[in-house]
Amino acid sequence: MEQTFLMVKPDGVQRNLTGEIVNRFERKGFKLAGAKLMQITDDLAKTHYGEHQDKPFFGELVEFITSGPVLAMVWEGDNVIATARDMMGKTNPLEAAPGTIRGDYGVTVGKNIIHGSDSHESAEKEIKLFFNDNEIVSYEKQD
Ligand code: CMP
Protein backbone atom coordinates (compact mmCIF):
# COMPACT_ATOMS: atom_id res chain seq x y z
CA MET A 1 0.00 0.00 0.00
CA GLU A 2 1.28 3.48 -0.89
CA GLN A 3 2.55 5.66 1.95
CA THR A 4 3.48 9.33 2.18
CA PHE A 5 5.16 11.59 4.70
CA LEU A 6 3.15 14.61 5.85
CA MET A 7 4.22 17.14 8.43
CA VAL A 8 2.26 19.93 10.09
CA LYS A 9 4.85 22.72 10.28
CA PRO A 10 5.48 24.91 13.36
CA ASP A 11 2.95 27.53 12.19
CA GLY A 12 0.22 24.89 11.85
CA VAL A 13 0.92 23.55 15.34
CA GLN A 14 1.02 27.08 16.83
CA ARG A 15 -2.28 27.96 15.16
CA ASN A 16 -4.02 24.83 16.49
CA LEU A 17 -4.55 23.42 13.00
CA THR A 18 -3.28 19.88 13.69
CA GLY A 19 -6.73 18.46 14.45
CA GLU A 20 -8.25 20.09 11.38
CA ILE A 21 -5.49 18.71 9.17
CA VAL A 22 -5.62 15.17 10.59
CA ASN A 23 -9.41 15.32 10.23
CA ARG A 24 -9.19 16.15 6.52
CA PHE A 25 -7.02 13.13 5.73
CA GLU A 26 -9.12 10.83 7.95
CA ARG A 27 -12.37 12.01 6.37
CA LYS A 28 -10.90 11.53 2.90
CA GLY A 29 -10.40 7.86 3.79
CA PHE A 30 -6.65 7.62 4.28
CA LYS A 31 -5.14 5.64 7.13
CA LEU A 32 -2.79 7.11 9.74
CA ALA A 33 0.16 4.73 10.08
CA GLY A 34 2.51 6.84 12.23
CA ALA A 35 2.55 10.16 14.06
CA LYS A 36 4.77 12.06 16.44
CA LEU A 37 5.00 15.57 17.77
CA MET A 38 8.68 16.45 17.64
CA GLN A 39 11.22 19.22 17.64
CA ILE A 40 13.33 19.08 14.46
CA THR A 41 17.08 19.50 15.01
CA ASP A 42 19.26 21.66 12.81
CA ASP A 43 20.89 18.54 11.29
CA LEU A 44 17.58 16.87 10.50
CA ALA A 45 16.23 20.09 8.92
CA LYS A 46 19.31 20.43 6.71
CA THR A 47 19.06 16.80 5.59
CA HIS A 48 15.32 16.95 4.97
CA TYR A 49 15.59 20.17 2.94
CA GLY A 50 18.99 19.27 1.38
CA GLU A 51 17.72 19.79 -2.17
CA HIS A 52 17.09 23.47 -1.33
CA GLN A 53 20.53 24.16 0.18
CA ASP A 54 21.56 26.51 -2.64
CA LYS A 55 18.32 28.49 -2.59
CA PRO A 56 18.38 31.99 -1.10
CA PHE A 57 15.67 31.07 1.40
CA PHE A 58 17.46 27.97 2.76
CA GLY A 59 18.59 29.63 6.02
CA GLU A 60 15.12 31.00 6.66
CA LEU A 61 13.59 27.60 5.87
CA VAL A 62 15.82 25.76 8.36
CA GLU A 63 15.28 28.44 11.02
CA PHE A 64 11.52 28.26 10.62
CA ILE A 65 11.16 24.47 10.59
CA THR A 66 13.26 24.22 13.78
CA SER A 67 11.42 27.10 15.51
CA GLY A 68 8.85 24.92 17.28
CA PRO A 69 7.30 21.45 17.31
CA VAL A 70 6.02 19.79 14.15
CA LEU A 71 3.58 16.89 13.79
CA ALA A 72 5.33 14.29 11.62
CA MET A 73 3.02 11.67 10.11
CA VAL A 74 2.88 8.69 7.79
CA TRP A 75 -0.38 8.28 5.87
CA GLU A 76 -1.38 5.31 3.79
CA GLY A 77 -3.83 4.69 0.94
CA ASP A 78 -4.34 4.38 -2.81
CA ASN A 79 -2.57 7.22 -4.62
CA VAL A 80 -2.02 8.99 -1.27
CA ILE A 81 1.14 10.84 -2.41
CA ALA A 82 -0.50 12.77 -5.26
CA THR A 83 -3.89 13.09 -3.54
CA ALA A 84 -2.35 14.56 -0.39
CA ARG A 85 -0.49 17.09 -2.57
CA ASP A 86 -3.81 18.07 -4.16
CA MET A 87 -5.42 18.39 -0.72
CA MET A 88 -2.52 20.59 0.49
CA GLY A 89 -2.70 22.95 -2.51
CA LYS A 90 0.11 24.85 -4.21
CA THR A 91 3.29 25.65 -2.24
CA ASN A 92 2.48 29.38 -2.21
CA PRO A 93 -0.77 29.70 -0.26
CA LEU A 94 -1.70 32.79 -2.29
CA GLU A 95 -1.84 30.55 -5.37
CA ALA A 96 -3.47 27.59 -3.60
CA ALA A 97 -7.13 26.98 -4.45
CA PRO A 98 -9.83 27.54 -1.82
CA GLY A 99 -10.75 24.18 -0.31
CA THR A 100 -7.12 23.11 -0.04
CA ILE A 101 -5.27 23.30 3.29
CA ARG A 102 -2.89 26.06 2.19
CA GLY A 103 -5.65 27.82 0.24
CA ASP A 104 -7.90 27.90 3.28
CA TYR A 105 -5.37 28.68 6.02
CA GLY A 106 -2.14 30.13 4.63
CA VAL A 107 -0.82 33.44 3.38
CA THR A 108 2.98 33.20 3.10
CA VAL A 109 5.16 30.74 1.16
CA GLY A 110 7.53 30.22 4.09
CA LYS A 111 4.80 29.60 6.65
CA ASN A 112 2.68 27.33 4.50
CA ILE A 113 1.38 25.05 7.28
CA ILE A 114 2.12 21.61 5.88
CA HIS A 115 4.78 19.64 4.02
CA GLY A 116 4.05 16.56 1.94
CA SER A 117 6.30 14.26 -0.10
CA ASP A 118 6.27 15.13 -3.80
CA SER A 119 7.11 11.68 -5.25
CA HIS A 120 7.42 7.98 -4.40
CA GLU A 121 11.16 8.44 -4.05
CA SER A 122 10.91 11.36 -1.60
CA ALA A 123 8.12 9.64 0.36
CA GLU A 124 10.35 6.62 0.96
CA LYS A 125 13.33 8.81 1.84
CA GLU A 126 11.39 11.13 4.18
CA ILE A 127 9.58 8.32 6.01
CA LYS A 128 12.94 6.65 6.71
CA LEU A 129 14.45 9.95 7.82
CA PHE A 130 11.72 10.74 10.35
CA PHE A 131 10.51 7.31 11.51
CA ASN A 132 12.02 4.09 12.82
CA ASP A 133 10.37 0.93 11.47
CA ASN A 134 8.80 0.18 14.88
CA GLU A 135 7.05 3.58 14.89
CA ILE A 136 4.96 2.68 11.84
CA VAL A 137 1.89 0.71 12.75
CA SER A 138 0.17 -1.87 10.60
CA TYR A 139 -3.53 -2.45 11.31
CA GLU A 140 -6.86 -3.13 9.59
CA LYS A 141 -9.07 -0.13 9.04
CA GLN A 142 -12.78 -0.26 8.18
CA ASP A 143 -13.72 1.80 5.10
P1 CMP B 1 7.82 22.53 1.46
O1 CMP B 1 6.81 21.77 0.67
O2 CMP B 1 7.98 22.19 2.88
O3 CMP B 1 9.22 22.39 0.72
C1 CMP B 1 10.17 23.41 0.62
C2 CMP B 1 9.71 24.66 1.29
O4 CMP B 1 10.45 25.82 0.98
C3 CMP B 1 8.31 24.99 0.84
O5 CMP B 1 7.41 24.07 1.37
C4 CMP B 1 8.16 26.42 1.30
O6 CMP B 1 7.66 26.51 2.62
C5 CMP B 1 9.61 26.90 1.30
N1 CMP B 1 9.79 27.96 0.31
C6 CMP B 1 9.63 27.85 -1.01
N2 CMP B 1 9.90 29.06 -1.59
C7 CMP B 1 10.21 29.92 -0.59
C8 CMP B 1 10.58 31.28 -0.53
N3 CMP B 1 10.65 32.02 -1.65
N4 CMP B 1 10.82 31.84 0.68
C9 CMP B 1 10.75 31.08 1.81
N5 CMP B 1 10.41 29.77 1.81
C10 CMP B 1 10.14 29.20 0.62
UniProtKB/TrEMBL annotation:
<feature type="modified residue" description="Phosphothreonine">
    <location>
        <position position="91"/>
    </location>
</feature>
<dbReference type="InterPro" id="IPR001564">
    <property type="entry name" value="Nucleoside_diP_kinase"/>
</dbReference>
<keyword id="KW-0547">Nucleotide-binding</keyword>
<feature type="domain" description="Nucleoside diphosphate kinase-like">
    <location>
        <begin position="1"/>
        <end position="138"/>
    </location>
</feature>
<dbReference type="InterPro" id="IPR036850">
    <property type="entry name" value="NDK-like_dom_sf"/>
</dbReference>
<feature type="binding site">
    <location>
        <position position="102"/>
    </location>
    <ligand>
        <name>ATP</name>
    </ligand>
</feature>
<feature type="binding site">
    <location>
        <position position="85"/>
    </location>
    <ligand>
        <name>ATP</name>
    </ligand>
</feature>
<dbReference type="GO" id="GO:0004550">
    <property type="term" value="F:nucleoside diphosphate kinase activity"/>
</dbReference>
<comment type="subunit">
    <text>Homotetramer.</text>
</comment>
<feature type="active site" description="Pros-phosphohistidine intermediate">
    <location>
        <position position="115"/>
    </location>
</feature>
<keyword id="KW-0418">Kinase</keyword>
<feature type="binding site">
    <location>
        <position position="57"/>
    </location>
    <ligand>
        <name>ATP</name>
    </ligand>
</feature>
<keyword id="KW-0963">Cytoplasm</keyword>
<keyword id="KW-0067">ATP-binding</keyword>
<dbReference type="Pfam" id="PF00334">
    <property type="entry name" value="NDK"/>
</dbReference>
<feature type="binding site">
    <location>
        <position position="112"/>
    </location>
    <ligand>
        <name>ATP</name>
    </ligand>
</feature>
<protein>
    <recommendedName>
        <fullName>Nucleoside diphosphate kinase</fullName>
        <ecNumber>2.7.4.6</ecNumber>
    </recommendedName>
</protein>
<feature type="binding site">
    <location>
        <position position="91"/>
    </location>
    <ligand>
        <name>ATP</name>
    </ligand>
</feature>
<comment type="function">
    <text>Major role in the synthesis of nucleoside triphosphates other than ATP. The ATP gamma phosphate is transferred to the NDP beta phosphate via a ping-pong mechanism, using a phosphorylated active-site intermediate.</text>
</comment>
<keyword id="KW-0597">Phosphoprotein</keyword>
<dbReference type="InterPro" id="IPR034907">
    <property type="entry name" value="NDK-like_dom"/>
</dbReference>
<feature type="modified residue" description="Phosphoserine">
    <location>
        <position position="122"/>
    </location>
</feature>
<keyword id="KW-0479">Metal-binding</keyword>
<keyword id="KW-0460">Magnesium</keyword>
<keyword id="KW-0546">Nucleotide metabolism</keyword>
<comment type="similarity">
    <text>Belongs to the NDK family.</text>
</comment>
<feature type="binding site">
    <location>
        <position position="9"/>
    </location>
    <ligand>
        <name>ATP</name>
    </ligand>
</feature>
<keyword id="KW-0808">Transferase</keyword>
